[in-house]
Amino acid sequence: MKFRKALVCLAISAALSACGDSDKKDVVTSQPDQGPAPVKTVVTGVAIKGVLSNARVTPYKFVNNEAVMLTEDELEDAEIITDADGNYTVTLLDYDGPLKVVISPITGGTTPTEMLCDVQDGCGEVEFGGKINLSTNDPDFSLSAISHIDKDVVEPVRLNVSAVTHLASSLIESKETIDASTITTTLSQVGNTLGIIGDINTLAPTNINSTQDIVDEDNENELKYGLINAAIASSLFAGGDGATQSQKLAQAAQDLVDNDGEFLVNQDDDDDFELALSDVLSLASSLAHYMVANIQKDFDNAETTALIESLSQRATNLTNEAVVKQEQANDDGRITPISDKIIEGGNVDIAAGLIEDIRVFANLFDLNKASGQDVDTKGEAAIKLSEDASLMVDAEVEKFTLVSTLGVAISNIQMAMDAGTATGTVFQLADWLTGTTSSATGTVTFDPENYQFMVNATEGSEKATLDIVLEQSEDQLSVSLNLSGELESTGAKLTLATGSMLKVSFDEAVTKAQLDMGEVPMPSAGEVSLEVTLTQLATEIVTNPLSFTGKVSTQVMPVLVPKVVSEWQVGEGESQIIEEYDILPKHISLSGEFSSLAGDRISATLTIDSDNAQGYQAAGLAHYGRKFEQNYQVTVSQDGRSIVESLEGGETFTYTFTPGANAGHWDEMLTITDENPKARYGEGFERTLSFRTNSTALGDEYIYAYHSSHQNTDYIYSQKVSPIDSTDDGVANEYRAYTISRSYDKNSPITDDNKPIPSFTNTWEFEYPDGEMVSFSEEDFSTYATANDYFAGNQFLNGNAPMDVTSSLSMFKDRRTSGRSLYNGDFGILSVNDYQQLSSLSNGDSLTLNTYLSEELLADAYQLDVSADANEITLNLEQSLVSSLQLDLVSPANFLLTQRMRNDYNEMLELSTIKSQTDDIGLKDDRVTVTYHMPYFARVVTYTPLSIDADSSADSVEVCDLWGDDFNADGLLIDYDGDLVIPQQDNCYTTDSFDNAFSNDNYLHYMSPYEISSALTVANHIYNWSSIQTYLQGVGVAEGYINADDVVAGSSHTFDAWITEPDQVSGLESEDQFLNVNAALSVGVTLADYDVNLTLNGKRTALEDGELNLTATYQLPGEDAQRTFTISYITTEQQQVTIANEQGTSVVLTVPEQTDADEQVTLGIITVNGEEAAEVVMRGKLLLVIYANGTVESL
How far apart are CA 38 and CA 36, in angstroms? Predict the structure, then answer.
């Protein structure tokens, strides 16, 4: 019905139209031809320098190399605005060719264009992360980017707009021709100069204003791009010349255009704004550190550890890059740009490009030894140059001995001037070297007002001309030593350029008076900055002298570190724990060039950073020397006659002093108690010490008596020290000490030699309950020249006469000069090392101090098991096998002894076998052959009886001793070359008996084969049961002991181990706490017309582990382009290496387990942007690449 109505209405309308004007001609109407629908190309991107929101997006085309705004007919939507995150979308209609996108502020609207401030120090009055109103503050600001559009490509085009793309687009517009090639080349040049890997148009620079965006970022190159982009913004805001961002950005762009894309490396001395590459890279490094701090503030460290490590490494890399750029600068201070060589074609072609990169480097350095010749490759020549340079530095620097001589002289002059014994300003060097072997001559001129030394000295062939100036900062918080001059030795000349200096900083002001007296506090930091030239001098021997020119700068921090000082260092009976300062590197930078007279050159730059060096606290010692906070207390009574010292969780020592009626008569009782169930003395320990002084005609006689008792042992001791007149002149000329003692082992049966101890008589001799007496023997004594000699040797008197001892405190202080040790059953022996505080105790004092673990206890760590037949013995430490013995005995002297012993060096079990067998040769004694198959050698010893008469008894024994490396499949002895060992006459000798022959052989443990009846008989010869020592990796030497009488067939024992020799001697670091070190090393060299640059980046991820990345760049001979690829290696994944390049090509190579020779093993898959393009395989010894199209080539 509706359709019919429509037809009627249409007919009526047509009729009315026809009748409306009869004078008009007939009009024929038709619809226009629409043609094909326009091809749409979608362009998306983000505008960021920080993020620009509500900004106008204007697309341009190029007509005759001039940018012309696209018309509404060429755009689906002409009004394009960035969103709140800076994103935009442009839809082009039927467009091919170069496209320029310009981002600019909207003016006059209600909503301003805003840009986030991504400058660490703020953008003028706007803080980091704040919003800048560009519509009012800088309406002329704009950013641009240029790409090339191919409308036949259906995928959206990514075109991000940043400060970096803006600089690149300015360069592109300055070219004579703007086409795809020009655009690609220019983008690559700008990206490479700034160190950005990848296409700066398609990479999205990370928004560093958002820590969440940084945490979520999974592309290292985009993160670096974000830092570089923000660093350019920081450069624009630096300085106060009043110019706007847009004006400075325009200046920077014009500077690049004027210099054909060559970036300025360092700013000039004038005040005009200049965008300098070293500033950008340094600011990016600083910004990376700033991001680390922000992330640590906003996120749990456990979630972002890897990112923080990566950012710290990135900061180090950027710092190193800044130094590298300075070294690479041309004479005009600029960097020549270079683009990447892009491999055209499909994925197989691109994958083949990475393989070619690897092959080029293998050939340059002859990594696969393909040359097989005596001719060195250029790579090997470069390595030799670097080795020669290292040797040159080591050798020549050591020859500058005059420096130490000057140090002695200047120190002597300074001390004499401080003491007022030296006046004047010019000093003859020879006058101030008394007592030395130096023959140096010359002068030292000193300006005391300016702390300046001027040295002109000669010693033999050495010369020195130095200017040394000490300067103090105005705030008195730092002191600098400025150095310049020359040192010359027989082989080299060292030049220190003006500006070289050493600087130390303090946390508090240091006055000039303190400097004069040398009384300054510990520095809080130090810096070294040297600009040096070291030139090797040509001689008849050195025909190709080397030279080095470069800069060295360091920043260091002191940290107090606990250390174990071995006994030979301190001259004491045991190792000690000390604390001393170590110098930690916060930053190290080395840069320069080695060159030879022949023209070979190597440039190198090294940067090392430790982001936690400042404020770093030493981890402490984990075993020997482990610190226990405030767990020792000592209290002295008001009269000093009672002392109580206690260890938390351990022993309590109580000393009680009782004076006698006469001087020199006194007793002291010591009781040791311990509530720890693992107490070493069980229910306790008690000791009574008595001294008596009696007058005689020749002088005082001394009695020293001692009695101790605990649950296992009683011990009694008495000593009489008498004056003796051995010359019969009525005067004592010596002292004789008569000693008696007895002990009682309560755990052993009572015998005549082991019975309950006697008691003291009134003359301090001994009497048993049955009346048996033990008296001093006039025949058994030791002699002292004087009584003082005896006092000095007595462990309790410590040089004091008994009558001078009036309290326990006086003895306690004298005995504490070497510290104090107490026992804790959970840890071992803990010592107090604060000798000064212990020796300064007074009556009524109480002290609480730290202790250190001086002998670590590993309770029940050793396990010893003996089989019921005594033919198998195993010894374990911490449930790990230390050694085992197994004997298979057939008959006397016919056996196989198998021993497994852990190698303390590599903790691997090593197998040794000793086989003995006898042969009847018609005499009473058989021939004995002993075969040794040891880890590092093989040996056969034959003992043959010889008889010279008819009684068949051996009159002598011939011993033939053959040594080799191993045994072959037939059991024959072979040497290291695999040849049979042939007996020679000089391998044999004759001895008079089997006993003598066997007793001379330590490899059989000096035993006769006939003596070996069980594994236990061998073990009793091998092991010193009273001192079993085993190295425990990371801990030290574990020592244990067991009563040999207890080691019997069928027995099993557990016993303690004590760490007596620590493995760790410095408490600077531990597995859980260590310096976060990041390093970057860049090396540049020309090899066979290839300009090669290698950059090795490394970050420490654990105490002994890290991640390494090698970036290799080489410029092709005769081309202006370069190729770049990276090799990544993680030390914890030692079987894997990742290789990748800037075109999205990557391969993870995995070293296979041992395989059959004919088996083909896949080492890795080469992918291009995630798609498989080739397979790397090992076939026998061949490395092959099998491409997706079936092509195969060797690597």
Answer: 6
Nearest to 84 by CA among 54, 115, 113, 119: 54
Quick one: which of 581, 654, 735 has its CA closest to 645?
654
pLDDT, position 876: 94
Q: Are 1094 and 1083 in contact (CB under 8 A)?
A: yes
Note the helical H segments in 1102-1157.
none
Please name which of 707, 653, 718 lies closest in space to residue 681, comparing C-alpha atoms: 653
pLDDT band at 756 (very low <50, low <70, confident <90, very high): very high
Cα separation, 66 vs 1091, whole angstroms: 37
| Dihedral of alpha carbons 285, 287, 288, 289, sign | positive
Say how far apart CA 326 and CA 52 lie, in whole Å: 33
Provide the 10 A C-beta neighbour count for residue 947: 16
Residue 802 DSSP class: G
Q: How many CB atoms lie within 10 A of CB 402?
A: 25
In whole angstroms, what is the distance from residue 761 CA to residue 771 CA? 11
Torsion of CA 452, 457, 463, 465, to 10 degrees: 20
Q: What is the DSSP letter of 81?
A: B
Q: Which residue has the tokens 């992918």?
A: 1167
The span from the CA of 485 to the CA of 468, in Å, is 9
Cα 638 to Cα 659: distance, rounded to the nearest angstrom = 15
CB 852 within 8 A of CB 627: yes
Mean pLDDT across the stretch 974-998? 90
Q: How far is CA 578 from CA 752, 841, 1059, in A?
A: 49, 21, 18
Closest CA to 358 of 348, 368, 349: 368
CA 334 distance to own-chain centroid: 36
* Alpha carbon 892 to chain centroid, angstroms: 57
Residues 6 or more apart in contact with residue 1064 via CB below 8 angstroms: 564, 621, 622, 623, 624, 625, 1034, 1035, 1036
Question: DSSP string of 694-760?
Answer: EEETTEEEEEEEEEEEESSEEEEEEEEEEEE-TTSSSS--EEEEEEEEEEEETTS---SSS----EE
Residue 438: both structure tokens together: 């130096």
Task: Read off the pLDDT of each residue in 1069-1096 and give the average, rounded to a whole number.
Answer: 86
d(CA 1195, CA 1159): 18
Range of lowest pLDDT (651-655, 1009-1013, 1181-1185) = 1181-1185
Nearest to 848 by CA among 560, 625, 644, 1067: 644
Provide CB contacts within 8 A for 596, sequence distance 6+. Answer: 385, 388, 544, 545, 546, 547
The tokens for 485 are 């001059």
β-strand partners of 580: 561
Predicted local distance difference test score (pLDDT) of residue 374 = 39
**CA pseudo-torsion sign 339, 345, 348, 349:** negative
Q: How far apart are CA 1088 and CA 38, in angstroms?
A: 54
